[in-house]
Amino acid sequence: MSKIQDMRELVNLHASGLSDEEIAERIPYRNVDWVQEVRSFLELPQNFPIRSRRQTQKPVQFEFMVSHYEANKKKSRKCLKCASSFESEGPQNRICRPCSKKQSFNLGQEWVGASL
Question: Do 20 and 39 contact (CB within 8 A), yes or no?
Fold first, then answer.
């Protein structure tokens, strides 16, 4: 195998959670020093993070964020530009469609930009 193929194999073996010694045994004509040198060159961590197989519990804050988003998803809101009521698509949608199509905005007492 070429050096590039060996490096690809190293990355794959490293991702599977093998140690440097185990990787060196599986790649012919390569030793532990070579594996450590290439791993540091590629900026791979010494111990690849292995995901736990047991289910993790979602943090309470995440549950609150999801429930808060679902509660505020679709409802009638006031437009931030013209103050008219419209059916919003979610908490991220605070400007009605007609105003979002305009390319002008209010800068204090003065309107700036062009209207389409």
Answer: yes
Dist. CA 98–CA 107, nearest whole Å: 18
User: From residue 34, how far is each of 7, 8, 11, 12, 108 by CA, in Å?
Assistant: 10, 14, 13, 16, 65
Whole-structure pTM value = 0.41
Return the percentage of the chain with pLDDT > 90, whole number: 4
- Whether residue 22 lies inside any domain: the answer is yes
Confidence of residue 116 (pLDDT cuts 50, 70, 90): very low
CB neighbours of residue 20 within 10 Å:
20
Query: What range defines the domain where residue 88 resides?
Result: 74-103
